[in-house]
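Q: Okay, next protein. This is Phosphate regulon transcriptional regulatory protein PhoB from Tritonibacter horizontis. I've checked the sequence twice, so it should be correct. Can you predict the 3D structure?
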Amino acid sequence: MLPEHSINGEDLPVSGSIRRVLVVDDSRLQRRILVASLKKWGFEVVEAEGGEEAMEICRADPPDLILSDWMMPGMNGIEFCRMFRAESNEAYSYFILLTSKSEKNEVAEGLDAGADDFLTKPVSSDELRARISAGERILRMQRELFEKNRIVSETLGELQTVYDAIDKDLIQARKIQESLVPELTRSFGASEVNLLLKPCGHIGGDLVGMFSPGINRMGFYSIDVSGHGITSAMMTARLGGYLSSTYFDQNVGMEKKFNRFYALRPPEEVASVLNARLIADTGIEEYFTMAYCIADLRTGVIKMVQAGHPHPLLLRADGSMEFIGKGGVPVGLVPDITYDQEEFVMEKGDRLLLYSDGFTEAHLKDGSMLDTDGFVELIKRCNARQNGKDFLDELYLKLTEVMGDDKGLEDDISATLFEFQGP
């Protein structure tokens, strides 16, 4: 490595900036004069008689600095500069044209060809050192920028690899989460439950479900875990186990009677058990809102607990609607809290809609939220006579329409629709 050299009183490190200089001139005398000065200042110098020879040198080993005469036989300095810039690799070389031309249009032509600077013949030693000094600073900054860009590109490549791996895991996680809701439609005698679950990302924090321990008895729910993403999804996976429709011995909504059959626990007791379990787990900051109901399919009696969830909407067979519930406190937020249970009766043809706040808090085209009034209007626009599955699909479609094409889902969308048709 060459030692540091001084130009115009500045110490300029050779490494990382200008080390190798190419002098291109058809005059052997002019080359000797320039080469002598450059070598005295500590540079490695390569010579060429014309543009063609210079291009061969540049292709083999590009120099840091090029001093090229403008007027040369064959390929002149402008043509050489233009070809060099066209073929140059990522490493930038500083290009100075040596010329007797000083007209503005000629200078513009040189700049347009890719020249960085000009020196007028005969070349002054002091001026040459000053121009090299300027080139040194520019090359140093350019190469520092190139190195930073390289690091950024490598980092982005590494991040892309990590992102692809995470994306693959999230796709698999979504399949696992979808398995928590194995069926979206299920009949219980003449009655029916339909589910809607639309996460805003790969995975979400909403959970809907249903289960039945026997004839004429069933439970259904709508849950919205706080936050979004992976932590919320992990909580829904846990809750899916607590309210399993397959493993009744794990389902906190059921209890075994006389060691013979399972019975449904009262909704307020289910909410209290879930609240106690979450509070007991230290380090868990997530909580969730819930509307949980059990139904007697013979009488239409519904027992419900509302824990911070949006008010369920009772859609009567005659077309009237009413919100049910008094609010309540989310599960996992406050210890030793009691939950109130509500009871009401559904008539044949009535529907009960449990839904997450992804509906009512959806942002419309004008930036406002849909809210409960807008939600009711949205339901009125749906065909109330269609089956439950088509009703939920149409409700979701109309929601996306009022949100506008440029607004994706900002929150998970979910709903549970229970339709009572008597014993």
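A: Here is a summary of the prediction. The longest helix spans residues 125-178. The longest strand covers residues 206-214.
Q: Noted. On to the next one.
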